[in-house]
Amino acid sequence: MRLLATWLINALALFALPYLMRSVRVDDFMTAMLVSVVLGLVNTIVRPILLLLTLPVTLLSMGLFVFVLNGLLFWAVARMVPGFHVFGFWSAVWAAMLYSVISWALTTLILKD
Fold first, then answer.
1. Can you state the percent helix, strand and coil of the chain, rounding each to 5?
2. DSSP letter string over 91-112?
């Protein structure tokens, strides 16, 4: 049940992004749900591999390269899923950060232990 609630919270966070950033567009709520699943899978499978491969760059940048990596993955998901559009790389970086904050805040408020 908690997994389903987290999935819905992430979809709500994605659906809220276009209201906060003009450079992100989500066509409908079902697209947001699909994007949250794909983004979850990419963050679970691809992100750890890329973090390991880019560890030297991440260490040299004192961890700031992780933001770039998150933006690249967010942008890649926008390219994969029809109905989800991010216009530009830096928009993807800011959208990924904003999505993380919104998702964390909603999860903290709604899913209390």
1. 80, 5, 15
2. HHHHHHHHHHHHHHHHHHHH--
pTM of the predicted model, to two decimals?
0.90
Copy the structure tokens of residue 22. 């003009």
Go through 76-87 and write b for each residue having 16 or more CB atoms within 10 A of its CB, e for each that does not.
Answer: bbbeebeebbbe
Sign of the four-CA dihedral 50, 107, 8, 96: negative
pLDDT in tens, the chain (113 residues): 888 889 999 999 999 999 999 999 999 999 999 999 999 999 999 999 999 999 999 999 999 999 999 999 999 999 999 999 999 999 999 999 999 999 999 999 988 76
